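User: Just a sanity check before I run the rest of the batch. Below are the structure tokens for the first item. I only need the designed sequence back.
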């Protein structure tokens, strides 16, 4: 790799080879050639003077792209598509005259973009399933582990570690549904011509509208699509790019939420992301175990979410049937959104698959707050033994305020239970209070909710992908 020129970190450090391949020059230009072959085949089948020999010659050079010829030509004509038409024609001299017949640049450019986005969504879909699978196992394992829940990052009613994980999974299920929907809605542009009217093809087919329509259908079928967009300008609507990147931004939102939770939990020393044996947490503080992978998820997610502004602005500012102010932006914003989302999901799988849980710390934090949360139960038990609810409520209030004051002002341990046990109005021993404070009594239906969610919502989704080849992911740094 050259060290004296800029290289995108998404290619060098973060994204997987599979996603990088989809946005590579090889995949792009070989797809252009497959589209030119599909066009030639369809035109041949519909009676235009395109021979099988010409098609065979084109097929023979579909993948051995003569980049040098195209690059030299582009410096002369300043047009990437015509440069590659020329380069392809150099390799296929008998077919040179029919390559790109009747088409405009967007025939290869836009159709290729749609093909790449659909393939890239397939990669994203599989990685989403991989994350859901890992988190489902985690939720099952810790479905009954009580933990302190938070609202406003203030201690609230307890939940379980597994139940909290279902919140992450629920977001991902929504993302997966959006990926599947958006993928199913992608169509091919087809052969629409310079302003979307297909005028050049109508001329080629001697005014036969039926053959023009059949050309679209045939090309779509050859390229693996069931349909084309019914109407367009020269390009497909740039709202398509926005719709696709909105799905990626949604995944980034879900991942960022997860990463923030993990970073906060790591601060509390309750749950940590994986930490390699030789990993350095800080260049200055050797003892530190910084949540660097979760931080990277947050960082990349911020990029993907903000990148959504690009297709939004592009779609909003297109003029009539075509302007070219979309091209340079699309070349950057769409590939990098996919590459960054790919990197995010790699990290998400890696972190969630290696989460380290510290039950003793979790229990310590829970028990430090539980006496305050249990006061209602303590008061009700005292009432059942003949106490006065109003009097007991006032005593609980006074004891709670004093215990809280000592914790905050003096750094003391919570002595609320000792205060209640020493108050004859409650007629309860410290041992009896400890039984009341069994954490599992305060998690509500969290274990049952987790079980039901995993069996009713998650298991059917995972079953859909049981036979899918979902490869293990890795992170480079």
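Assistant: Here's the designed sequence for the first item:
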């Amino acid at each position: 790799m050259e060290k004296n020129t800029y290289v995108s970190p998404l290619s060098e450090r973060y994204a997987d080879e599979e996603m990088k391949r989809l946005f590579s020059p090889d995949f792009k230009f070989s797809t252009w050639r497959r589209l030119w072959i599909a066009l030639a085949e369809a035109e041949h089948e519909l009676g235009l003077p395109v021979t099988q020999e010409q098609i065979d010659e084109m097929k023979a050079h579909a993948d051995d792209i003569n980049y040098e010829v195209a690059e030299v030509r582009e410096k002369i004509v300043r047009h990437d598509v015509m440069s590659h038409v020329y380069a392809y024609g150099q390799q296929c001299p008998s077919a040179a005259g029919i390559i790109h017949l009747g088409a405009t640049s967007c025939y290869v450019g836009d159709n290729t973009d749609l093909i790449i986005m659909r393939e890239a969504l397939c990669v994203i879909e599989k990685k989403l399933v991989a994350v859901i699978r890992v988190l489902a196992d985690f939720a099952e394992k810790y479905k009954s582990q009580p933990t302190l829940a938070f609202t406003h990052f203030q201690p609230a009613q307890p939940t379980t570690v597994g139940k909290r994980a279902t919140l992450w999974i629920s977001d991902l299920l929504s993302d997966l549904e959006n990926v599947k929907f958006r993928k199913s809605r992608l169509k091919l542009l087809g052969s629409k011509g310079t302003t979307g009217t297909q005028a050049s093809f109508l001329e080629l087919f001697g005014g036969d509208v039926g053959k023009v329509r059949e050309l679209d259908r045939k090309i779509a079928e050859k390229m693996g699509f069931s349909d084309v967009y019914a109407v367009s300008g020269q390009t497909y609507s740039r709202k398509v790019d926005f719709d696709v990147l909105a799905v990626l931004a949604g995944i980034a939102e879900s991942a960022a939420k997860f990463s923030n939770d993990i970073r906060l939990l790591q601060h509390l020393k309750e749950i940590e992301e994986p930490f390699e044996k030789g990993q350095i947490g800080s260049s200055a503080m050797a003892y530190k175990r910084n949540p660097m992978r979760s931080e990277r998820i947050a960082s990349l997610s911020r990029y993907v979410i903000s990148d959504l502004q690009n297709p939004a602005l592009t779609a909003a500012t297109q003029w009539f049937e075509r302007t070219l102010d979309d091209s340079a932006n699309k070349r950057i914003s769409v590939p990098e959104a996919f590459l960054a989302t790919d990197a995010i999901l790699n990290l998400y799988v890696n972190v969630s698959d290696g989460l380290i849980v510290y039950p003793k710390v979790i229990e310590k934090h829970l028990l430090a707050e539980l006496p305050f949360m249990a006061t209602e139960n303590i008061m009700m038990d005292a009432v059942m033994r003949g106490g006065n609810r109003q009097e007991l409520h006032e005593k609980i209030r006074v004891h709670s305020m004093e215990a809280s004051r000592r914790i905050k002002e003096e750094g003391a341990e919570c002595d609320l239970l000792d205060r209640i046990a020493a108050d004859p109005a409650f007629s309860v021993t410290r041992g009896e209070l400890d039984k009341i404070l069994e954490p599992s009594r305060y998690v509500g239906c969290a274990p049952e909710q987790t079980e039901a969610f995993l069996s009713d919502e998650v298991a059917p989704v995972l079953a859909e992908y049981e036979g899918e080849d979902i490869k293990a992911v890795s992170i480079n740094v």
